[in-house]
């Protein structure tokens, strides 16, 4: 099952959050109205006046002269986006970014950990709101095509689950305009409209032969697939963009190094469990510390070789903490993650004559970590040895 998560009016929402007096007012992010340029995005208050993304700013001013025009702050948006994507990574490492404010998530393999896909979507929405003050809209569906359509169903701050019943799903899809389908741009939509194909139901009823004659065999096959909600695309993971992390926010700031070590160990173990559950290894360890006043410090260090066992993760987390913790400064949030994930770790050392009796150290640690996973799944509280 897939989630498509789209932050609501992201740039404008960040500006409204950072400038409380702008909340509830039409905020337009982009070029000033007295300059050549376009609207990057705008708040929902501005959209009521007809302002849209990619519209010339001068036209936006004509439609909404009372609008608050602001230059974009991309560094700030990237910072908030990183917070949002860190939340996604808590629930699944299978995250496909589509843009700074939009992503697909494959949650098929995490039901036992976090519940059904709808429940996961609600948890993510709640986490995003609580930790960033922003809202997002989520679509839940068996594939990426339907999930993206579903996320548009109840914007803003929406959640829509595509019907599980195949006939109900087709009926829901049939009411959509063909322009909503993946791969149907304005030119193709006009071509289809000239033949009376305006809605998906028209496409579902179209003759395959007539469609092939109109747009060619390859595009006709694609249109038939999307018209009936067929999409076999998996999550596309960029090798250098993948990450997985966990964070813990304290109800009261903590300045006890021993407690920080205990909590960091638990975070590292959870990261390790999820790495192993998805057959992934991490190349880089990352520590996050947030102090009073929301001052945040992030530090990272590479592993000599990709790892997924609790021992290497725990030791890396503790080493980063020892080097970068500011003594006597209370910590508000602590986090640990791994970046540059891979599903193809470097080969283990070649077997020697005694390999059957003494597996390479990394392999032994991974086997032991998986044994601990099995015990935890049965409800037993266990932790890897200190050594």
Describe this protein's structure.
The strands form three sheets. The chain has a five-stranded mixed sheet. A four-stranded antiparallel sheet has the order 9-12-10-11. Strands 3-2-4 form a three-stranded mixed sheet. It has helices at residues 10-18, 44-47, 57-63, 74-91, 111-114, 117-132, 144-151, 166-174, 186-194, 200-205, 208-215, 217-227, 257-277, 310-324, 361-377, and strands at 2-7, 27-30, 39-42, 68-70, 95-99, 102-106, 136-141, 159-161, 243-254, 282-291, 296-307, 331-339. By secondary structure, the protein is an alpha+beta fold. Among the domains are: 10-74, MutS, DNA mismatch repair protein, domain I, CATH 3.40.1170; 166-227, Orthogonal Bundle (DNA polymerase, domain 1), CATH 1.10.150.20; 243-377, Dna Ligase, domain 1, CATH 3.30.1490. Strand 5 and strand 6 form a beta hairpin.
H/E element order: EHEEHHEHEEHHEHEHHHHHEHEEHEH
Rg, please?
A: 25 Å
Any guess at the CATH architecture of the domain at 243-377?
Answer: 2-Layer Sandwich
Ends: how far apart?
40 Å
Helix content: 40-55%
What oligomeric state do these chains adopt?
single chain
Regions with pLDDT < 50 over 5+ consecutive residues? 347-360
Derived from helix and strand composition plus strand pairing, the structural class reads alpha+beta
